[in-house]
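Researcher: Re-running this chain for the archive, since the previous output was lost when a drive failed. Same request as before.
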Amino acid sequence: MPRGIDYGNLMHRAMRGLIQEVLEGVQANGLPSDHHFFITFDTGHPDVEIADWLSDRYPGEMTVVMQHWFDKLEVTDEGFSVTLNFGSEPERLYIPYDAIKTFVDPSVEFGLRFETHAEDEDDDPIPVSPDPVSAEQPSPAPISDSGKKDAEVVSLDSFRK
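Model: Regenerated structure tokens:
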């Protein structure tokens, strides 16, 4: 018999479902209005598929930007794949939802942060966009440069005992 309700894992599943639903909408209809995403993910996750040169350059985590140009977005129940242009090199990426560390849409000041138990014990914060890699621009301007306040990131730490 379980010791209690694991609200942390239930919230993570729900938030990943939200990301899936948002990406399915983008797959069907494109990005509406000024929406765009900063997605930080664990490049060492066993199911992540990225080019060797990207995993060499970003051995721990990587932030990609889906904004003006992306191609062949395919969304599944386990993750999504998308082709992004890095400089002049289009690259296909597969990112499982379990590998996502942060998902931010600065156009509406929305953000999610996923933390593992190991990170909770270390109390090391996860930066929302440590070194963004963009299909449009190698180093996008910080979120707050748009004149809007930074996107708020939902952290489960405040709900845990």
